[in-house]
Design brief:
This protein is an alpha/beta fold and 148 residues long. It has five helices and five strands.
């Protein structure tokens, strides 16, 4: 079973946001294992970057969420994840920066950089959108109906 690790700066403080994220993680539990690796907020993105690097599981395929990354539609994300699983990837780590962004060393060393949107989202909202899109991708991969 594919393991998805969401490495992110800070914790989710808002109850409604935590509940929504937990809901998608629960929905995904039959399709993949979702793990959260939260690191503390620091004074600089460089410090956060060092903590994020340590939070990434060894051997994981690393996807940095970055405004300069490649934009994929929902079907394309499903194809991307499916291709990784077909290639034998068993662990994917999605890395999300804090409120001041992601240290450049993360996308520079990542296996792939993904841009969810040209719009800027809070790092909390990014987690929710990412999980919803992973859920949608897993439904597409398994041939289940899900709005495209």
């Amino acid at each position: 079973m594919l393991k998805i690790t969401v490495c992110a700066v800070g914790t989710i403080k808002e109850k409604y946001m935590r509940e929504a994220i937990e809901d998608y993680a629960k929905r995904l539990s039959s399709k993949c294992k979702v793990v959260f690796a939260e690191v503390k907020e620091c004074r600089t993105v460089a410090e956060e970057g060092e903590l994020l690097k340590k939070a990434i599981p060894a051997g994981a395929f690393v996807v940095a969420l970055d405004l300069k990354g490649k934009m994929l539609g929902s079907t394309e994300l499903a194809e991307f994840i499916d291709a990784k699983m077909t290639d034998g990837v068993s662990s994917i780590a999605f890395v999300i920066g804090g409120s001041d962004g992601l240290d450049r060393s993360i996308p520079d060393s990542a296996d792939f950089s993904l841009c969810l949107s040209k719009m800027t989202f809070t790092h909390q909202m990014t987690r929710l959108i990412l999980l919803e899109q992973i859920y949608r991708a897993m439904k597409i991969i398994s041939g289940e109906k899900y709005h495209k």
